[in-house]
Write a structure and sequence with these properties.
With 325 residues, the chain is of the alpha/beta class. It has three domains: 2-16 and 148-230, no CATH class; 20-145, no CATH class; 244-320, Winged helix-like DNA-binding domain superfamily/Winged helix DNA-binding domain (Arc Repressor Mutant, subunit A). It has helices at residues 10-13, 20-36, 42-52, 55-64, 86-94, 98-110, 126-142, 146-167, 169-172, 244-249, 251-259, 266-273, 277-289, 308-320; strands spanning 2-6, 15-16, 181-183, 187-191, 198-200, 205-210, 217-220, 225-230, 293-298, 301-306. The protein has a four-stranded mixed β-sheet with strand order 3-4-1-5, with no helix packed on it. The chain has a four-stranded mixed β-sheet with strand order 2-6-8-7. The longest helix has 22 residues, at 146-167. The two termini are 29 Å apart.
Length: 325
């Protein structure tokens, strides 16, 4: 198995961040897998047409979405905090020279389970074209939906930060990804495969959520290591609540109740559910009056969360809609 081993001060320095690049890689992986399954959605078909139009992009995404060893230029550790810049991540990609990029691609190719080779990379300015490909995929498939994605990831970070405050870092790993767990007192099991352990120094480990339903990887540079994992709540999103409980309380309020199985701000709910902030606020006011939800302030943000009565109602709503668990 592969471990992330923490030095004496590493855990205290660890923190969360968002990465537009990691989210882009997550989304193109999902689309690539859907395309391989011959999914018929217009979004997937548009992705396929985009790939067909550019052999370089097609070869690149075929490789990075089907290898056990990501090339380092596809896994840049993000900056700190929740306002990471895609432009900064792409600049770091472009700074890698062609010789190093070829070595990274060769290593990824050796670990690929589905690839057409790397003849497509026999060009000058490899990482410039890689950065352009990620910028284009962001603009087409991620950027238009960034507000919803960001809300999901911010809620995950808020949830885990609350666990850390109450119970410490060990509980922040709960449900992070299958097989991810503490080993001993100073290491996280990252993978069941045998790769060299990563040693986390005094700069700490950066935890980075993404909105895909699965997939985890590390991003590494000389001084920073990030662990990318699927955000809790990525399965959320109830576009329709058809059962009896949903009809009783109203579809809009049922969707809000279901989403509040993880606490959220009104703006996060609006983004995730795709409805106006005014509509969300009206639902929350009614639910608070009914003592289904309560509020808690964290810094400048006001988070809504379910009361015990709300928990019971959420179980009914999600079971009624076939989404419980």
């Amino acid at each position: 198995m592969t471990l992330l081993r923490f030095g004496p001060d590493a855990l205290q320095a660890s923190r969360f961040a968002l990465s537009p690049l990691a989210e882009t890689l997550s989304e193109v992986t999902r689309l690539r897998q859907a395309l391989d399954r011959r999914a018929a959605s217009p979004h997937v078909q548009a992705f396929g047409h985009w790939l067909d139009a550019d052999p370089f992009v097609n070869g690149l995404l075929r490789l990075v979405t089907a290898t056990k060893y990501l090339p380092d230029f596809a896994a840049i550790p993000p900056g700190d905090g929740l306002n990471g810049s895609l432009a900064d991540e792409l600049a770091a990609i472009r700074a890698i020279d062609d010789a190093d990029a070829h070595a990274m691609l060769a290593e990824a190719q050796r670990s690929a389970w589905a690839s057409d080779g790397i003849a497509w990379a026999d060009v000058t300015g490899i990482t410039r074209r890689v950065a352009d490909a990620f910028a284009d995929s962001w603009a087409r498939f991620v950027g238009p939906d960034w507000a919803r994605r960001r809300a999901i990831m911010e809620r995950d970070i808020h949830h885990r930060a609350g666990l850390i405050a109450v119970s410490g870092w060990r509980h922040a790993l709960d449900g992070m990804a299958p097989g991810v767990q503490w080993v001993g007192h100073d290491a996280i099991q990252f993978s069941t495969q045998t790769y060299p352990d990563r040693h986390i120094g005094s700069d700490g480990l950066i935890f980075v959520p993404h909105t895909g339903l699965s997939g985890r990887w590390t991003c590494e540079s000389a001084s920073r290591i990030a662990f990318v994992y699927p955000a809790k709540g990525a399965l959320a999103g109830y576009s329709q609540v058809d059962g009896g409980v949903g009809r009783l309380v109203g579809q809009g309020r049922a969707r809000v109740i279901a989403e509040l199985r993880m606490s959220a701000t009104p703006s996060q709910l609006a983004a995730v559910l795709g409805i106006s902030l005014g509509t969300v606020s009206a639902h929350l006011a009614a639910l608070r009056e009914a003592r289904v939800v309560t509020t808690r302030r964290t810094g400048r943000a006001v988070y809504y969360e379910l009361t015990s009565a709300g928990d019971d109602l959420a179980r009914l709503v999600t079971a009624d809609n076939g989404t419980d668990g």
